[in-house]
Specification:
Low-confidence stretches: none
Radius of gyration: 21 Å
Mean pLDDT: 94
Strand content: 15-25%
CATH architecture of the largest domain: 3-Layer(aba) Sandwich
Number of domains: 3
Helix content: 25-40%
GO molecular function: phosphatase activity
Protein name: HAD-IIA family hydrolase
Shape: globular
Pfam family, one: Hydrolase_6
InterPro entries: HAD-like_sf, HAD-SF_hydro_IIA, HAD_sf
Number of strands: 19
Distance between the termini: 32 Å
Largest sheet: 6 strands, parallel
CATH class of the largest domain: Alpha Beta
CATH topology of the largest domain: Rossmann fold
Strand order of the largest sheet: 5-4-1-13-14-15
CATH superfamily of the largest domain: HAD superfamily/HAD-like
GO cellular component, one term: cytoplasm
Order of helices and strands: HEEEHEHEHEHEEHEEEHEHEHEHEEEEEH
Structural class: alpha/beta
Length: 346
Amino acid sequence: MTGGLIGSDTPLADRFDLALVDLDGVAYRGHEPIDGAAEGLTAARERGMRLVFVTNNASREPESVADQLTDLGIVTHASEVMTAAQAAAQLLRTRLPRGSKVLVVGGAGLVTAVRLAGYEVVHSADDEPAAVAQGFSPEVGWPQLAEAAYAVGRGAWHVASNLDLSLPTARGFAPGNGSLVGAVQAATGVVPDSAGKPSPTMYQMAVERVGARETLVIGDRLDTDLGGARAGGYIGLHVLTGVSSARDDVLAVPGERPHLIGADLRSLLVAHPEPHQAAEGWWTVRDASARVVDGRLELGRTADTSVEGQVDVVRAACAAAWASVDGGAELDPSSVPELATDLASP
């Protein structure tokens, strides 16, 4: 089956020696902890798994991110944080000589990364920057977006740290960097280049930084985290604590499908069953089952109401839906219910 779920007979923390972990919606939500995050990551480390936190957020310094994680019970050093700001700075280096002027629209993390890459940071289009580097910051407003639009309109190269349209916070979903980048794009008609996920650039940088035998990518968004895993050839684990839902998994396009699905980061500590095809078109995962008949998803009955039992239903539904779609059939989205809705969610 093209782009299907895989299984693991051993806990993921024992199988993979490196995990590239997203932050918002995975390790924390805004400034609030996520159930199971500290427990899962701490235990995974004790089993020998190394961690690098890879985030599309470019507003903060790695030291600040590490401090927040440590305060939430996930002891982290700045060297274990890879931000989209660092990836954007690396992307600038592919075309701009050191010493070039770069108009930075974003937070301290992006300013620092651009300066460390050897560029002169400016804040006005009248300084004639060669590029605009744009990343998320809560302080970004119309004046900064206008300067970016003026510069891009005059020919500056527009580089976005990422294109996430939204980001999870403790109060719900808020506009992300992609929404702010969209304002500049709408004003100029210029499509920016992006250094963040789903480009696998940051994943590759992280693996090169620490080295790894087998790498696992962990994220909450199919379009960025898991899309980046597929693009880079890495195994991707989707945890159901952030933006993309279990229903999104079932309806995912091949390039954004996860290889593994877990309720939260405690799923690093358990084995993951692989779906199997049974009689009459059913796909089974332990006690859960699902099939597609005449373009509609059908779920079998299961007596297992545990968290893992609910995730098994999601796994079986994904296996059935993906096999049907990959075989050339259509799947009616209205037949796919919301699944595992009582698991951790924003």
